[in-house]
Amino acid sequence: MLTFPPAFLVGHLPARPHDPARPHVTVTWAQSLDAKIAGPGGARVILSGPESMEMTHWLRTMHDAILVGINTIIMDDPRLKIQLVPQDDPSLLPPQPLILDPQLRFPLSARILSEWNKYRGSRELRDDRILRDSRDVPDARGPAVVRQPWIVCGDTVPPERREEVERAGARVVPTQLDGSGRISPNALPAILSSLGLGSVMIEGGSRILSSFLHAPSRADGSPLVDSVIVTVAPMFIGEGVGVVPEGEDRGLPPLRTIHTETMGKDAVMLCALR
Ligand SMILES: NC(=O)C1=CN([C@@H]2O[C@H](COP(=O)(O)OP(=O)(O)OC[C@H]3O[C@@H](n4cnc5c(N)ncnc54)[C@H](OP(=O)(O)O)[C@@H]3O)[C@@H](O)[C@H]2O)C=CC1
Ligand SMILES: Nc1nc(O)c(N)c(N[C@@H]2O[C@H](COP(=O)(O)O)[C@@H](O)[C@H]2O)n1
Fold first, then answer.
1. Is 68 inside a domain boundary?
2. What is the residue range of 146's domain?
3. Is residue 1 part of a domain?
4. Own/partner pairs for 37-41, CB < 8 Å, 24+ apart?
5. What is the pLDDT tens value at each position of the chain, 274 positions in all?
6. Does the CB atom of residue 266 touch ligand 2 within 6 A?
7. CB-ligand 2 contact for 48 (6 Å cutoff)
8. Which mutation among 31, 206, 239 tests ligand 1's pocket best, with the greatest number of atoms within 8 A of CB?
C-alpha cells in the first residue's frame, strides 16, 4: 500500500484548489496490451493490480469531480469512491460523481445512488446523536464521505422523468445537447464552472474516451484534455471493448509522454496532448 500520493502525480498535476474558471480535464483508463478496456459484451475486467488501483483512488481524490458515461453506470455499476486511500485523513476528499446521460436512462437501482441514500440516511441519524465521521464535513458539494450522484442530461428530457430521478435522490443537471444528441465535450468546462468544480477525472467508457480525445481545442486554443493517464496491464483480453469504439481510432491526437511509472505488474503512463 502506498502511504503518500505517488510523487509523479503530485509533481505533474496542478495543485488544488483548481480554478473553476478553467477546469483541469484529466482523461484516464486502464487497458490491456491489446488496447481493450472491458471483455465481451462490455463485461468488467480487473485490469489494474493493487498498486495501480490504489493510484487510481489517489487520482480520484486529486480531482473535484469524476465523470463516466451512462453505459458504464449500467454495465459496471461502479461506486467511484476512494476506499483505497487512508480514511483517517480529512484532507482526502472523494470527487463529485458526474454522469453524462443525455436521455436520462439512469437506473434507479444504481449502486452509486443506493450508497448515497444509505449514507444520507445514516448521516441524518448521526446528526441527531451529534456523532460525525472526521471527514463528514460538508463543503460546496455536500458531505465529504459519500457524495450525491449528479446526472447531466438533455434539457429535452421530460420534467416528470427528471423529478422521478431527483425524488430517488440524485441531482439532475439539464443542459443543451449537440447535433448528435450528446453532451458536447467542449461544453463540459462551462458545465463544471457553473457547478463550482475546478477539475474532472474522466474514467470512461469507450464512447466517452473517444469523444473527449477527439474534441477540438478550447476557445483559448489550449487542448480540452490537459492530462492523459493510462494504466497498461500485462494481459490480453481478445474479444472485448476497445479504448475507443471500432472505426474511431483515426484522428486521435498526438501525445507527449511526461512520465512512465511501474506500479506492481502495471505500467502507468502520464501524457499531455502535444
Ligand atoms: N477499463 C477502464 O478503465 C474502464 C472501462 N469501462 C468499460 O467501458 C464500457 C462502457 O463504454 P461505452 O459502452 O462506450 O459507454 P460509456 O460509458 O462511454 O457511455 C456512453 C454513453 O454516454 C452518453 N454520452 C453523453 N455524452 C456523450 C459524449 N459526448 N460522447 C459519448 N457518449 C456520450 C451516450 O448515452 P446515450 O446513448 O443515452 O445518448 C453514450 O451512449 C463498459 O464495458 C465498461 O466496463 C468504463 C470505464 C473505465
Ligand atoms: N483503474 C481501473 N482499473 C480497472 O481494472 C478497471 N476495471 C477500472 N474500471 C473503472 O473503475 C470503475 C469501478 O470503480 P469502483 O471500483 O466501483 O469504484 C469502473 O466503472 C470503471 O470506470 N479502472
1. yes
2. 23-273
3. no
4. 37/204, 37/205, 37/206, 37/209, 37/240, 37/241, 37/242, 37/243, 38/75, 38/205, 38/206, 38/237, 38/240, 38/241, 39/237, 39/239, 39/240, 39/241, 40/239, 40/240
5. 555 688 888 888 888 889 999 999 999 999 999 999 999 999 999 999 999 999 999 999 999 999 999 999 999 999 999 999 988 888 889 999 999 999 999 999 999 999 999 998 887 777 665 555 667 777 778 778 899 999 999 999 999 999 999 999 999 999 999 999 999 999 999 999 999 999 999 999 999 999 999 999 999 999 999 999 999 999 999 999 999 999 999 999 999 999 999 999 999 999 999 7
6. no
7. yes
8. 206
Query: How far, in Å, from the CA of 103 to the mean position of ligand 1?
Result: 13
Atom of ligand 1 nearest to the CA of 72: 17
Tally of domains within the chain: 1
DSSP run (H or E) holding 199: strand 199-204
The complex's ipTM works out to: 0.99
CATH of the domain at 121: 3.40.430.10
Q: Which three cell numbers stand for residue 140?
A: 460546496
What does pTM read for this prediction? 0.96
The partner residues of 66 in beta bridges, in order of sequence, read 97, 201
